[in-house]
Write a structure and sequence with these properties.
The complex is a heterodimer of chains A (about 110) and B (about 180). With about 110 residues, chain A is mainly beta. Chain A contains one helix and eight strands. The longest helix of chain B has 30 residues. Helices cover about 85% and strands about 0% of the residues of chain B. The chains are: A mainly beta (about 110), B mainly alpha (about 180). Chains A and B meet through loops of A and helix 3 and helix 6 of B.
């Protein structure tokens, strides 16, 4: 019985050594975070955004808006009363504005 | 001419405030306020449509599209609100004066073209939004009674402040 357990353990260690994914740290599940637009303002940025997460803007206003990254990495059109989203591809601090109402601005922090 | 129009508009909108200080009963009523706000939107939509037909500057065209789209949205909400409240917007000297000044401005701008038109249109947008925002902040919002109307005017003020900033930015670029 002890020998069989030892063999199983040895096999498991061997498989891990060969790089089988089951032994790797579990990848972080991608999540969807939301920013509300209301009264010509973006709500606060969601905490703990990571590369691979989806960021969704829900436009509660009667006006067309956009979420336009100043560095050009996304430009999401947000018709009145509709939502739009983007998958975050790069880590960093990203400032964005509404290109129709440039006084509206926000910032997100994306980690690896 | 631009200054004349703005002065006339300020005088028109301020007339309620002046009258109100002399006799509080003369404050604009909600149906009058609704008419002034709606008229202000219609005026800017007409100005935007004129620019869309005359300008070839992509930034000016984008701004004019924004004006038409946003003011149409607000006026749509305003119409829905007065219908829900069963209120008929009431014409008054302030809205009549705003309209007369705007008609004169449209005629004046119609004679211009190219960069001269762009500059005059955007300068007028700066002055117009400044005037309307002052009226909203100092007279129309404080004097409105219905909370839904007041809330819509407050949203309008936020929007028009954005427009004013955008127009000022554009005016600086066109110089």
């Amino acid at each position: 019985m002890a020998i069989r357990s030892a063999r199983r353990l040895a096999l498991a260690l061997l498989l891990c050594g060969l790089g089988f994914s089951a032994c790797a740290p579990k990848p972080r599940p991608a999540k969807t975070a939301e920013i509300i637009i209301d009264q010509l303002a973006f709500s606060a940025a969601p905490a703990e955004l990571h590369v691979g997460d989806t960021l969704r803007w829900d436009n509660h206003d009667m006006f067309q808006h956009s979420a336009t990254a100043k560095d050009g990495q996304f430009d999401v059109d947000l018709p009145a009363g509709r939502a739009g989203s983007v998958v975050l591809r790069r880590a960093g601090i990203i400032s964005y504005i509404c290109r129709y109402h440039p006084g509206m601005s926000g910032q997100i922090v994306v980690s690896e | 001419m631009n200054r004349l129009f703005v002065t006339a508009a300020i005088a028109a909108v301020a007339s309620f405030a002046t009258a109100a200080s002399a006799a509080p009963a003369a404050k604009p009523t909600d149906p009058q306020i609704a008419h002034i706000a709606y008229t202000a939107g219609v005026i800017d939509i007409a100005a935007g449509n004129q620019a869309l037909g005359k300008s070839h500057n992509k930034d000016v065209l984008a701004f004019a599209q924004e004006m038409v789209r946003d003011h149409t949205a607000v006026n749509g909400k305003a119409l829905a609100l007065v219908k829900r409240l069963n209120v008929t917007p009431q014409a008054n000297p302030t809205s009549a004066s705003l309209k007369a000044g705007a008609d004169a401005k449209l005629t004046e701008l119609a004679k211009l073209s190219g960069a001269a038109f762009d500059k005059a249109y955007v300068q007028n947008e700066v002055a117009y939004h400044r005037t309307v925002n002052g009226a909203l902040r100092d007279t129309l919002i404080p004097d409105s009674q219905n909370p839904d109307l007041k809330a819509l005017l407050q949203t309008g003020l936020k929007l028009f402040t954005e427009h004013q900033m955008h127009a000022e930015h554009l005016a600086a670029e066109l110089k």
